[in-house]
């Protein structure tokens, strides 16, 4: 869903770089303020020196100058990472500033602070309020700032079409060079996410040249990465590799972790596809060097995945396992981050809808009160009009109550269901599975857990696109639903990983179901996508006889068996048997299933 989408902390920082109000050439303090505004994104060290000089002269500042000084100090604290100190300062300035443009900038600074601190719900709420004041802003540059922040926030939460609308409003209003550069960056990325990039590369090159002229090298290289991704998607990986390698020294000189990590992660993927495992490993290690600053990010997921595949190709199974475990943890953290942003968007959207409904209802009530006063003046029609008004009021309240209830039910379903496949998401699967296990424990029933992971799923995404990958995940979910009873729990744990909790089933029965699922996955016809490829899965099976009624232990045992199935060659089932708890040297513990389509599937350690 959000595989090509990433946090643009630099964009958030630079998007607020606008010239402050009127310049008084005769006042040295005003000159310092203007220079500090310009240096904020282009030269952070110079900005800090200028801010020190400004603070030394703050006792002599006018009321307007003090507001601008407060804004710069709040900005400095927030983008140094001291958000807990900068945010209250920005909030106080937004409440007390007499100048409307300064109030707007302070409010937008709060939006950035919330975004940098991963408080997306608060950030979106703040943005919703601030954009209502946009028509009152006098300065064109500050209006562009507000639209830029709105574009970045929407791009972060996956609303690329809305982000595109904001940046196109900026570009249509003849922005300055730096703003045009940054708006072009978001425009290119949003169009790429929406599949709207033009066939010709001329406009993209113009955007890169604009950013280079403004010395915004980070933005220029984000656009270059988007261009390289376009070429790679069209099958010209060599050209993409050449472009990124040519500008990699410039990318590293920016010292911007997200940019460096994204470029190297993409290079690692491309070089591995070309068979250059050594380069792929080197680039992946370069991503890990930035890991402290790019946690819960897609480049980190790609880097661990590449290291896993390189180790697997070399036959270094121990290193491959360590890399895969890191990949799995990074992937889950990234998916949780994406879901948090989606949830924040849905929460604020629902709150906005409720406020609109409440305002509409209050308007209706006010209108009815006015009509009632008029009715009081018309004695002959008093009774009839009062009855009519009461009926309308009750109907309106009932209608809005019905609408709100429907929205609440819809949100509940969204919170419980995986949006792509329609099965339980991880959170809801955990709740239902724990309830089912508790009931099994009370009734003395057995329970079994099947966990499976699609084989080489990344290759499907890389070769045929994420749309084909999403189609495959939907088909897998539909295939598995057919083997589940109403009392069983089927869920998508994340990525291409699924699990089934089977109520009242022993280990052998669960193994049969797992084998049926395995065979059914292999029979999925992929011609509908326009491509021909195999869909197979590796399965791990355990039961309450092995692990008791603890979901965590069931998942742990099934996960170990799943990894074992992958290491044994994939497209198979491994079952957690009692003997596996105390393995004997030279011994084996194998469960054989009946012959199926000319082959005997062996399940076990």
Strand content: 5-15%
Count every beta strand, where a strand is a DSSP E run of 2 or more residues. 7
- Residue share in helix: 55-70%
In DSSP terms (H or I, runs of 4 or more residues), the helix count works out at 24
Give the name of the CATH architecture of the domain at 426-604.
2-Layer Sandwich
Overall structural class, as computed from helix and strand content, comes to: alpha+beta
Tell me about the largest β-sheet.
Answer: 5 strands, mixed
The spatial strand order of the largest sheet comes to 2-3-1-4-5
What top-tier CATH class of the domain at 426-604 fits best? Answer: Alpha Beta
**N-to-C terminal Cα separation, in Å?**
35 Å
Radius of gyration: 29 Å
The CATH superfamily name of the domain at 426-604 is Reverse transcriptase/Diguanylate cyclase domain
Query: Under CATH, the topology of the domain at 426-604 is which?
Result: Alpha-Beta Plaits
The whole-number mean of residue pLDDT values reads 83
Uncertain stretches of 5 or more adjacent residues:
1-27, 581-605
**What general form does the structure show?**
globular
EC number: 2.7.7.65
Region (Disordered): 577-605
Catalytic activity: 2 GTP = 3',3'-c-di-GMP + 2 diphosphate
Signal peptide: 1-25
């Amino acid at each position: 869903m959000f595989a090509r989408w990433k946090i643009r902390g630099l964009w958030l920082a630079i998007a607020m770089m606008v010239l402050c109000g009127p310049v008084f050439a005769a006042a040295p303090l005003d000159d310092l303020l203007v220079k500090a505004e310009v240096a904020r994104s282009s030269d952070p060290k110079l900005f800090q020196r200028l801010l020190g000089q400004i603070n030394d002269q703050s006792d002599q500042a006018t009321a307007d100058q003090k507001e601008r000084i407060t804004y710069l100090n709040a900005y400095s604290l927030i983008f140094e990472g001291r958000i807990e100190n900068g945010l209250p300062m920005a909030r106080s300035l937004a409440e007390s500033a007499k100048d409307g443009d300064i109030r707007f900038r302070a409010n937008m600074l709060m939006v950035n602070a919330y975004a940098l601190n991963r408080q997306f719900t608060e950030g979106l709420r703040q943005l919703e309020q601030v954009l209502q004041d946009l028509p009152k802003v006098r300065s064109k540059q500050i209006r562009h700032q507000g639209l830029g922040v709105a574009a970045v926030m929407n791009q972060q939460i996956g609303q690329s079409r809305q982000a595109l609308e904001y940046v196109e409003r900026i570009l249509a209003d003849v922005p300055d060079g730096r703003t045009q550069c940054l708006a072009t960056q978001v425009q290119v990325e949003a169009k790429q996410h929406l599949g709207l990039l033009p066939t010709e590369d001329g406009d993209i090159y113009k955007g890169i040249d604009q950013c280079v002229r403004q010395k915004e090298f980070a933005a220029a290289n984000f656009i270059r990465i988007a261009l390289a991704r376009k070429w790679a998607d069209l099958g010209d990986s060599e050209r993409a590799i050449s472009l990124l390698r040519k500008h990699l020294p410039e990318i590293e000189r920016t010292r911007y972790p997200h940019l460096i990590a994204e470029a190297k992660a993409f290079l690692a993927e491309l070089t591995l596809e070309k068979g250059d495992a050594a380069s792929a490993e080197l680039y992946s290690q370069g991503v890990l060097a930035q890991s402290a600053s790019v946690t819960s990010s897609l480049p980190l997921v790609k880097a661990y995945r590449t290291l896993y595949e390189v180790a697997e190709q070399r036959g270094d199974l121990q290193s491959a396992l360590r890399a895969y475990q890191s990949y799995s943890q990074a992937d889950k953290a990234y998916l949780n981050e994406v879901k948090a942003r989606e949830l924040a968007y849905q929460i604020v959207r629902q709150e906005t809808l409720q406020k609109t409904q409440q305002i509409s209802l209050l308007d209706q009530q006010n209108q009815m009160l006015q009509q009632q006063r008029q009715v009081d003046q018309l004695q002959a029609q008093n009774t009839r009009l009062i009855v009519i008004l009461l009926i309308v009021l009750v109907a309106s309240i009932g209608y809005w109550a019905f609408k709100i209830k429907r929205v609440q039910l819809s949100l509940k379903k969204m919170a419980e269901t995986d949006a792509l496949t329609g099965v339980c998401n991880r959170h809801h699967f955990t709740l239902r599975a724990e309830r089912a296990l508790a009931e099994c424990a009370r009734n003395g029933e057995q329970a079994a857990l099947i966990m499976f992971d699609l084989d080489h799923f990344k290759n499907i995404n890389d070769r045929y696109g994420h749309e084909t990958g999403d189609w495959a995940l939907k088909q897998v979910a539909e295939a598995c639903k057919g083997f589940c009873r109403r009392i069983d729990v089927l869920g998508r744990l994340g990525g291409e990983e699924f699990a089934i909790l089977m109520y009242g089933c022993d280990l052998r029965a669960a193994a049969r179901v797992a084998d049926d699922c395995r065979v059914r996955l292999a029979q999925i016809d992929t011609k509908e996508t326009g491509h021909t490829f195999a869909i197979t899965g590796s399965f791990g099976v355990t039961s309450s006889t092995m692990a008791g009624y603890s979901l965590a232990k069931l998942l742990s045992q099934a996960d170990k068996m799943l990894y074992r199935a992958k290491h044994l060659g994939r497209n198979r089932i491994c079952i957690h048997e009692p003997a596996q708890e105390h393995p004997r040297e030279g011994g084996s513990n194998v469960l054989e299933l009946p012959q199926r389509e000319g082959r005997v599937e062996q399940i076990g350690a």
